[in-house]
Amino acid sequence: MKIKALTDLPEKAFRPAEWSCSARFNRVSGFTLLEVMVALAIFAVAAIALTKIAMQYTQATSNAILRTKAQFVAMNEVAMMEINKEWLDGTQSKQVTSQGETWQIDKKAQATISPKIQRIELQVSLFNVDQDKVEAGISHLVFFNHPKES
User: Fold this and answer.
1) Which domains does the chain have, with CATH numbers?
2) What is the mean pLDDT of residues 6-25?
3) DSSP state of 2
4) Which family does the similarity line name (predicted)?
5) 3-state DSSP call for residue 133?
6) Chain-centre distance of CA 8, in angstroms?
7) Nearest CA to 120 among 76, 86, 72, 88?
8) What is the pLDDT of residue 128?
9) Which letter does DSSP use for residue 147 in this model?
10) Which helix (H) or strand (E) holds 91?
């Protein structure tokens, strides 16, 4: 292995330290404060938009679950009326606890062309036990009922 002479080294090797430091500061490198602030503003707006989308998705999912539960409550009520061959006169309201929630079921009977069949409208609403009031109706179902056989 051959050792190089000092004359074979590049000229950069003999520059004083202050030359390389001053050259580094004169050269444009990195981002300016304005560029960083603009980038942060863009990131903040994007993060807020993504958070809003995630919240809307969560709310929509929660509402879909609640509507599905209300539909099951309505279908269970229809099944119980059919099993018991219940004939409804006028309107009826009751509260049931099902699937971890308290529901109010409002039923309204209407006559049809045939005297042996009645039209029943069911409205299932979430019942707020703490405030003892009915919140907005969640599920609406219509079915046709047959009377008891004598």
Assistant:
1) 33-145 (3.30.1300.30)
2) 56
3) P
4) Belongs to the GSP I family.
5) strand
6) 71
7) 88
8) 86
9) P
10) strand 91-98
Q: What does DSSP assign to residue 26?
A: H
Residue type at position 70 = A
Report the alpha-carbon distance of residue 47 to residue 54 in Å, rounded: 11
What does the pLDDT average to over 16-40?
72
CA–CA distances in Å: residue 16 to residues 5, 9, 12, 21:
20, 15, 9, 9
User: Phi/psi at 90 (nearest 5 deg)?
Assistant: 75, -130
In the Cβ-directed half-sphere of 132, how many Cα atoms lie within 13 Å? Answer: 0
User: Can you tell me the distance from the alpha carbon of 99 to that of 59, in angstroms, rounded to the nearest whole number?
Assistant: 19
**Contact status, residue 119 vs residue 128, Cβ threshold 8 Å:** no
Interatomic CA distance for residues 99 and 72, integer angstroms: 9
Q: What is the pLDDT of residues 53-103, one digit of tens each?
A: 999 999 999 999 999 999 999 999 999 999 988 889 899 999 999 988 899
